[in-house]
Amino acid sequence: MNKRISQANVYVKNEMYEALLKLLEEKSFSAISVSDITTEANVSRMSFYRNYNSIEDILIEHLDAVVEQYKIEDIDERIKETEKVYYGKKYMIHTFGFFYQNHDFIDTLISCGMGDLFLAKITEYLIRKWVNKESDTRKEILKISAYAGSIYNMYREWEKSGFQEKPEEIADILYELR
Questions:
Q1: Are 119 and 144 in contact (CB under 8 A)?
Q2: CA distance 161 to 178
Q3: Predicted TM-score of the model (pTM)
Q4: Contact of 18 with 41, CB cutoff 8 Å
Q5: pLDDT tens figures, 128-175
Q6: Long-range CB contact pairs, 27-35, < 8 A, 24+
Q7: Using CB atoms within 10 A of its CB, is residue 136 exposed (0-12), middle (13-18) or buried (19+)?
């Protein structure tokens, strides 16, 4: 029974996410109501409030899933073996490639005024991955934070130009800055 409920819950959440994306094609994020989402998704308001506290929570939940997917890919042995530092070129190529694959969602976050949340998630992940709590200093955390900001800002400019460059070319530019 729990498995069926869980699958139904996943279905309802997915319907609400898809409804939100569809509504964003027609309206600004601030103009979308819970009623709009539940009507478009053909689910009850109770379903919404059983799963979320706010409309932003729909995007936050999806962002968490995207970050989790990035972590899974990041653990890939191929990357793990070749990259020992966060500013390695192959690591940068992987990052920009992943961002490009998910650019529709990332652009949605940014257009909804949630770009800072995306940046915070990137920064948090990089610090957890690359900072050795026992030996690294505050200086190392600041370096990684600056690197995360560089990635984010480069993505924004890349997106504005319609992704003219390949992920490898964007990584080359960032790699030259190190």
A1: no
A2: 23
A3: 0.84
A4: yes
A5: 888 877 777 888 899 999 999 999 999 999 999 999 999 999 999 999
A6: 29/55, 29/111, 29/112, 29/113
A7: middle
